Amino acid sequence: MHAFTLLEVMIALAIFFMAIFAILGTVNRGLGAARSLQQKFPDIDALASDLMLTNKLEEGTIAGDFGDLNPGYTWTRDIYQVATNGLFEVDFIIQSSRGRQHVEWKNSILLWRPDSQVSNFGRRP
User: Fold this and answer.
1) What's the structural domain count of the chain?
2) Rounded to an integer, what distance in angstroms lies between the CA atom of residue 112 and that of residue 108?
3) Is the pTM of this model over 0.70?
4) For residue 78, what is the enclosing H or E element?
5) Residue 117 lies in a domain
6) Is residue 118 one of the residues assigned to a domain?
7) Residues near 102 by Cβ (< 8 Å), separated by ≥ 6?
8) Using CA atoms, how far apart are residues 90 and 12, in angstroms rounded to an integer?
9) Strand order in the sheet with 87-98
């Protein structure tokens, strides 16, 4: 009967662990590269949730930025009435200018707020 010596087992374990650490290092670098490619874009959730909490809307345009949460991004919100029963359309525009790259996307929501006061119906900029 032939058995492995302690030296042979230790060499086999050393080779095994070197291969495992090489694989883990490659996976870690791949995950880091994938993470660096992801861009975190702001969305209108925070802006829309602010409007959802109010019972009255005012027609007009408001602009701002996302502060430290998403630096470099600005937003514009335009509210106007689309029906006489208090139905409003809210247009959101999110913009970013980084170097030569300009990113802009738009989104709209409809809100029914019958208690809102409006100045002139059907005005759309």
Assistant:
1) 2
2) 13
3) no
4) strand 73-81
5) no
6) no
7) 95, 96
8) 67
9) 60-65, 73-81, 87-98, 101-112
